[in-house]
Amino acid sequence: MRHESCVTSLSWIPSEAVTGGTRMAFDTGLTHYDEPPPDELGDIERLRATDRFRFANVLRAWIDVDDSGQITASGYDGGGLMGSTMVKIGGLRHRFQAIQLPDLHHDPQQGDGWVRFVQTTGGRTGLPAPRPVRRRPYVQWQAPLVWTTLSLTLHADGRAEGALTGASRFPRHWVYDGEGKLSHKSGLADFRDWYRKSFGRHSPWGDEDSPALVTAVETALERSLSVQLMHGGAKPSIRSLKAGDVLVRQGAPGTNVYLVLDGVVRVERDGERLAEYGPGALLGERAHLGDGTRTSTMAAVTACRVAFVDAGQFARTDLVELSGGHRREDAPPDRPAEDAAPDRPAEDAAPDRPAGDAAPDRPLADVGGD
C-alpha cells in the first residue's frame, strides 16, 4: 500500500514589514506589499499566476507499506516555486522573475514505522538590491536569499506530520497541511536582519539554516476583526516592542484592543504564564467587556510590532466571542498553565524567560495608560 502526503509553505511580504530606506519603494508604489494568502491553499499555480506569493515550498513524499506493516520504499516529490516582483515607474511596468536555487533534499530518515523527509527551497528576487552588509565583501549587489525548510513525517499507519523547521528571517511564511488548510505561521519577520545577513554561506546553500519561530493560526473571527482593525473607520496606531517590554499591565486601566503584527506576545496573570500568541492574534478585549481594568499582563517574548485601536470600534458580540476563545485567564490560579484549557498554544516558541525578564517594571512609554 502506498501512503502519500504533502506540506506546503507560501511566503509573502505583509504590510509595513519593510523598514529603512528600502521602504520608500513600497510606500511610493514602485513595488508592493502582498495581500495575505488564502486560508485554504487551492490551486497553487493559480496563486502564483495572480502574484499571491513570493515563493512556495511544496514538499510531497510517499512510502510503500507491505502487508506486515513494514515500510519497503519511499521517495520525494514536489519542489520549489518562485514568484516574481512587479515594478512600476510612471506608466511603465516590468516583472522581474525570481531566481530559484537548487532544491535541497535530505536523505530520508527512517525509524520504527515512519520515514521523515526534509526539503529546502528558495532563491532570490531578480531585482538587484545593492546594499552594505556586515561581512566581506561589505557590499552586495544581488538580493538576499529567501528560503524555507519543511519536514514531513509519514507513518506506516497512514498518519502524516508536517513542520516548518527552518526559514529565512524574511518574509512571512505560512504553512499548509496535507489537506491544504493553513496550519501554522512564522512568528517573526525581521527585514533588517535578513537584508544584511542572508547571502553566501549564511544560508542552507552555504553551511547554515535559521531555526523557524512557529506559532499557531488565529481563529476565523480574529482574521475578520483584524481586517476591521487595520482598515476600519479609526486608523490604528503601530508600536514596536523589544523582547521583555510590557505592553499592558494587569490592574492598569485601558480599553484598547491589540493585533499582533509580528513577533510573539506572552499573556500572564498574577505572575502565571498563561499563553503565547503570534501574528494575527487579537488581544486585550476583556478590559473593555469588564470595568476597564486589565485582567492580565501582556509582554513581548521577542521583538514585536502591534497595531491597536479602542475596543469600541468593534461590535460587543464579536468581542464576547473573542473573549470566549481566551479561556486561559479563567483557569484556577493553582492550575498548571499547560492544563489551563488552551485555545491556540504557540508551538516552537522561544524558550521561557524568568518572570522578571518577561514582564519588566518598565512599560512602554508610548502605549499610554492602556
Summarize the structure in words.
This protein has 370 residues and is mainly beta. The chain folds into two domains: 2-212, no CATH class; 220-367, Jelly Rolls. It is built from seven helices and 24 strands. Strands 3-2-1-14-15-16 form a six-stranded antiparallel β-sheet, with no helix packed on it. Strands 6, 7, 8, 9, 12 and 13 form a six-stranded antiparallel β-sheet that branches. The chain has a four-stranded antiparallel β-sheet with strand order 17-24-19-22. It is globular.
Low confidence ranges: 331-370
Query: Helix/strand/pairing class, anyone?
Result: mainly beta
Number of strands: 24
- The number of distinct structural domains comes to 2
Shape: globular
Write the layout of secondary structure elements.
Elements: E1 2-12, H1 23-27, H2 44-49, E2 55-65, E3 71-82, E4 84-89, E5 92-97, E6 99-100, E7 104-105, E8 109-111, E9 114-124, E10 131-132, E11 139-140, E12 146-155, E13 160-167, E14 172-176, E15 182-186, H3 191-197, E16 214-216, H4 220-231, E17 237-241, E18 246-248, E19 256-262, E20 265-269, E21 272-277, E22 282-283, H5 286-289, E23 297-300, E24 304-310, H6 316-325, H7 355-358
Antiparallel strand pairs: 1-2, 1-14, 2-3, 4-5, 6-9, 7-9, 8-9, 9-12, 10-11, 12-13, 14-15, 15-16, 17-24, 18-23, 19-22, 19-24, 20-21, 20-23
Keywords:
single chain, 370 residues, mainly beta, Jelly Rolls, 2 domains, 6-stranded antiparallel β-sheet, 24 strands
In short:
This protein is mostly beta strands and 370 residues long.
